[in-house]
Automatic annotation (TrEMBL):
It comes from the Bacteria. This is Integral membrane protein. It comes from Pseudolactococcus plantarum. The chain crosses the membrane at residues 29-53, 85-102, 108-131, 152-174, 180-198. The keyword Heme does not apply. Keywords: Membrane, Transmembrane, Transmembrane helix. Pfam families: DUF624 (PF04854). InterPro entries: DUF624. The keyword Transmembrane helix applies.
Length: 208
């Protein structure tokens, strides 16, 4: 190739940048579809989120494995523990919402409960990610998830904001993004969050 001539073939080659990005995009689309389908019973959403994090954490680490089999293996392995956490979360959120509705005139109570809901949602990110990577009893997972959410507030706010923008904000304000949600939103959210989760887990493991 002459000097200064752009090598398009290099980009499109099996090891080229474009090929690698297209392959990752394909994996994220497959992963997103798996997540949506496996979440349809609603009660299995916890197991679906756990399997989603399992795959995206490995993707961020550069560990390649067939998305379909990796997702199903994690889903089946963690369904009991993840479902316990998910049902407990729903119960807590339902209770908090009822209390907010009943005490609408009490501003301080509403603020406290909204803060509780926010911390709970931040902790869930860590809890499901921990379940996907480590073997501990459920109470330990919840305790560690809450501690991580509080100790690493900046990471927690960033990851919760990413989920809010991509999962709620984009489909709500960009009407055609409903199709995007079916194809990419959930897996892309978990993939971006997994960058921060891997970084944080590495810091914690090195510290201990």
């Amino acid at each position: 190739m002459k000097e200064g001539v752009f090598d398009v073939r290099g980009l499109l080659a099996v090891n080229g940048i474009i090929y690698r990005y297209m392959l990752k995009l394909y994996d994220l689309i497959v992963l997103n579809i798996l997540f949506v389908v496996s979440s349809l019973p609603l009660i299995t959403i916890g197991a679906s989120i756990t399997a989603l994090y399992d795959v995206t954490l490995n993707m961020q680490n550069g560990h390649t494995r067939q998305v379909y089999s990796a997702y199903l293996d994690s889903f089946q392995k963690n369904i009991k523990q993840a479902t316990q956490v998910w049902l407990g979360f729903l119960l807590l959120i339902a209770t908090a919402v009822i209390l907010i509705s009943v005490g609408q005139g009490n501003v301080w109570l509403s603020l406290v409960l909204l803060g509780f809901i926010t911390i709970t949602m931040m902790a869930l990110i860590y809890i499901f990610a921990l379940i996907s990577k480590f073997q501990h009893n459920t109470s330990s997972m919840i305790k560690n998830g809450v501690l991580l959410a509080i100790e690493h507030t900046a990471y927690s706010i960033i990851m919760l904001s990413i989920a809010g923008v991509l999962v709620i904000g984009v489909p709500l304000y960009i009407h055609w993004a409903g199709v995007l949600s079916m194809l990419l939103t959930f897996s892309l959210t978990a993939y971006i969050q997994s960058y921060f989760l891997n970084k944080l887990f590495l810091e914690v493991l090195n510290r201990n």
